[in-house]
Write a structure and sequence with these properties.
Layout: E1 15-22, H1 30-43, E2 47-55, H2 67-80, E3 84-87, H3 93-103, E4 108-111, H4 112-123, H5 127-141, H6 145-148, H7 150-153, H8 167-206, E5 210-216, H9 222-230, E6 247-252, E7 258-263, H10 273-278, H11 280-287, E8 291-297, H12 303-316, E9 324-329, H13 336-345, E10 350-351, H14 360-372, E11 376-382, H15 387-396, E12 398-405, E13 408-415, H16 417-423, E14 427-428
Parallel strand pairs: 1-2, 1-3, 3-4, 5-7, 5-8, 8-9, 9-10
Antiparallel strand pairs: 6-7, 11-13, 11-14, 12-13
């Protein structure tokens, strides 16, 4: 066809080796944890070419794995021409530096935390999301700076005047100061965004809107469920952490009540504490919710462990006392016996398939029941010039009866405490209460 061959511009995926240590303390089987780590690596664009495991009572302080396993790792890296080694647990800065010396540049050694942070950095779309990821990345990076500048620090071989302020040490201190300043700035920016979010949340509270938050393990199908319920087009992809930034949509229940549903970041086992801390302003939507729908992938063999993981994170952010309904998604992948076993194990849960829409009417009925919990019946006569209040009655309350009278709208409704306080000046006696 011609003298020139086309050159592919597709980025070459990095070849990754996964390393896991079984100390017997984790509720997750090592094989399943490494399989999840593999999915995380693939989500970040890597190709898993090998795995290495070891059983230890406790990680080795110097290199996390034993000296023999470290030699085996070096051999495996060379044999498979790997670019990156990914550990399933968080490494200390010194462990990471020692391992990188063993495998030698340009090979990299990272841990699960660094991998998740990288994925979050690629997937965050909103300004708040990017700021949160940057904060978590810098908090992770700060204690690891010394290892990154070790080649300069090592040049200080002689004593004498000025030796205490060598090139490496001075650059290290400059970087530390810059990072600390950046962390301080990021925290202030996120505090401002959190205040703004708080004002919006208070406005929804004052308006009497019932707020529902979707939480769950990553890839449980929360975004698909939000799209189904609200006819939205939130980004959905079969990968871990496909969406990070919270999305809130309005929904009208059959009884006429308007509610909001917020899709939140997915959780995962061994979620870095820096991320939980950085994403607290986003997770504040969960804390402020009236009802939490804990969405679970019912087809996952580790579904029970995933429920425990999500509940632990909810506890960490102060949301463990919230009303919560278990929602088992992807039941289209189960047979009848599996569905029956699920019913026996979790009789109060709701079973759905967000993909084909099955069970969604039952889910919305359950949400309506939860929204009506704690409501009381009252009768009000609202003047016609209070048009906004009349609209709120139809959107925020369950209307039992209504009649247009000379003095205004006479309505008997079931109202929440918030709405009842708003309607109190217009309350009248009625036989229907």
């Amino acid at each position: 066809m011609g003298r020139f061959k086309p050159i592919s511009t597709e980025p070459t995926p990095e070849r990754a080796i996964l390393v896991g240590v079984d100390t017997g303390r984790s509720p997750w089987p090592l094989e399943d944890s490494l399989a999840e780590l593999g999915r995380l690596a693939e989500t970040d664009g890597a190709e898993v070419v090998g795995t290495l495991t070891q059983r230890l009572d406790a990680p080795v302080p110097r290199t996390f794995i034993g000296s023999g396993k470290t030699e085996e790792l070096v051999h495996l890296v060379n044999a498979l021409d790997a670019d990156v080694v990914i550990f399933d647990d968080e490494l200390t800065p010194s462990q990471q530096a020692n391992l990188e010396k063993a495998v030698r540049e340009p090979r990299k050694v990272i841990d699960r935390t660094a991998l998740i942070l990288d994925i979050f950095g690629n997937h965050a779309k909103t300004r708040e999301g990017r700021l949160q990821v940057q904060l978590a990345q810098l908090q992770y990076l700060l204690p690891r700076l010394r290892g990154m500048w070790s080649h300069l620090v090592g040049e200080q071989t002689r004593g004498g005047i000025g030796s205490r302020f060598g090139q490496g040490e001075s650059q290290l201190e400059v970087d530390r100061r810059l990072i600390r300043d950046r962390i301080s700035w990021l925290r202030k920016e996120l505090e401002n965004l959190e205040k703004r979010r708080g004002v919006q949340s208070k406005a929804r509270w004052d308006a009497g809107v019932f707020r529902v938050a979707l939480v769950g393990y990553t890839n449980a199908g929360k975004s698909t469920l939000l799209n189904r319920l609200t006819s939205s087009e939130v980004y959905v992809k079969d990968e871990l952490f496909a969406t990070l930034d919270p999305t809130t949509r309005a929904l009208d229940l059959e009884e006429g009540r308007k509610i909001t549903i917020t899709d939140t970041v997915g959780f995962i086992q061994k979620l870095p504490t820096t991320l939980v801390e950085a994403f607290k302003s986003t997770l504040a939507e969960v804390v402020a919710a009236d009802l939490i729908l804990l969405v679970v992938d019912s087809s996952d063999a580790n579904a029970e462990l995933e429920i425990d993981t999500v509940r632990q994170v909810l506890s960490d952010i102060g949301a463990s006392d919230k009303r919560c309904v278990l929602v088992f998604n992807k039941t289209d992948l189960l047979d009848e016996d599996q569905k029956h076993a699920l019913t026996l194990a979790h009789p109060d849960a709701v079973q759905i398939s967000a993909l084909d829409g099955k069970g969604l009417r039952g889910l919305l009925y359950r949400v309506a029941q939860e929204a009506a919990d704690g409501e009381t019946t009252c009768t009000v006569l609202v003047p016609y010039d209070k048009g906004m209040l009349i609209r709120m009655i139809h959107e925020r309350c369950q209307v039992i009866s209504e009649r247009y009278e000379d003095g205004g709208l006479l309505a008997t409704v079931r109202a929440s405490e918030r709405m009842r306080m708003t309607l109190e000046p217009y309350r009248v006696e009625s036989d229907e209460e």
